[in-house]
Amino acid sequence: MAIRGLFFHSSPVNIRMLDTIKIASEFRPNERAVVYPGDCLDLLTVIPAKSLQLIVTSPPYNLGKEYEKKLDLDDYVNQQRAVIKESVRVLKDSGSICWQVGNFVQNGAIIPLDALLFPVFRESGLRLRNRIIWHFEHGLHCTRRLSGRYETILWFTKTDDYIFEVDPIRVPQKYPGKKYFKGPKAGQYSCNPLGKNPGDIWVVPNVKSNHVEKTGHPCQFPVELIERLVLSLTKEGDWVFDPFLGTGTTIVAAIRNNRRGAGSEILPKYVKIARDRITQAAEGSLAVRPMSRPVFDPKDAGRSLTTAPWLNDGDKNGYLALSEKPGRYPTRK
Fold first, then answer.
1. pTM above 0.70, yes or no
2. Which residues, other chains included, contact 148 with Cβ-Cβ below 8 Å and sequence gap of 6+?
3. What does the pLDDT average to over 41-57?
4. Could you tell me what percentage of the chain is helix, strand and coil, using 3-state DSSP and rounding each to the nearest 5?
């Protein structure tokens, strides 16, 4: 399948045309997009050593979904170990591995998969740079424990000489007008004009039924989550790889930002969805939630009620003073 289209950063100033791109089914270093319809280990074995800059994925959680077979936990860890070992082999010395996981749940008890898999990454000599918390607002409602509203991304590097660029993923300053109050820089702005480091807690809406990116996949992650990793951990033209591709989000994030993308998926229906989304992304027609959009804006959502009804008209700050003493209210006799 050959496609021609736009490859762009989230900001429209970086839109530019690239050559015609073919979505290949086999990995070759000169390709720009590869969707392999099969097992990730079969694909990994043909990829040359030290050829990929970023490997980012969300593997199955061993919950018995349609794309996985539920295993004994030891067998699950060994399965992941085989994929991780091959991933380290094909990773450049300057590269990063980002493993996005949640919890394994059994009889109401949870086992955090990042804790379970951390020793496996350490066996391969990788260095953990951040344990990123991905926070979202929606999900299953629990009745006998607190509802889970976050998952984690373990970011590892292969060496100490790795690519990391924070400028493309900076977020707005909390106090943009803050200035130095003493010293030789007194009176000058003290914050970075490009924004602040986003930190290791990322608030990004998860892909639920009303999300603009929603497909038929039950565990789809959002493009903007992967774009942060692509923009900060790779350079243009680098390879980004996802061994558990799903509906192609990782490759979408890669080609939107002038990178090469590859991945594998075992279910034919998700292979088709992935190829369709990659085509649409290249054409500039894929609906994607931009990184710069606030999580929720009641005015943009068309809500008639945009402030709390108990606030006084004279409350300029728009916040309820939690420390104030409660007043007396009239009661019926």
1. yes
2. 102, 103, 110, 139, 140, 142
3. 97
4. 20, 20, 55
Q: Tens digits of per-residue pLDDT, 60-78? A: 877 666 666 777 889 999 9
The answer to whether the beta carbons of residues 213 and 280 sit under 8 Å apart is: no
Q: The CATH number of the domain where 12 resides is what?
A: 3.40.50.150
Counted domains in the chain: 1
Q: Is residue 312 part of a domain?
A: no
Domain assignment of residue 15, yes or no: yes
Cα–Cα distance, 224 to 211 (Å, whole number): 12
Full domain range(s) for residue 9: 2-166+198-283
Using CA atoms, how far apart are residues 96 and 226, in angstroms rounded to an integer?
A: 13
Pure H helices in 22-96: 40-44, 73-90
Domain annotation covers residue 93:
yes
3-state secondary structure of 27: coil
What is the distance between the alpha carbons of residues 196 and 171, in angstroms, rounded to a whole number? 5
Give the sign of the dihedral formed by CA 137, CA 197, CA 224, CA 232. negative
- Report percent pLDDT > 90 for the chain: 51
Average pLDDT over residues 301-321: 54
Q: How far apart are CA 52 and CA 80, in angstroms?
A: 19
Instruction: Tell the burial category of 178 from Cβ atoms under 10 Å away from its Cβ (0-12, 13-18, 19+).
Output: exposed
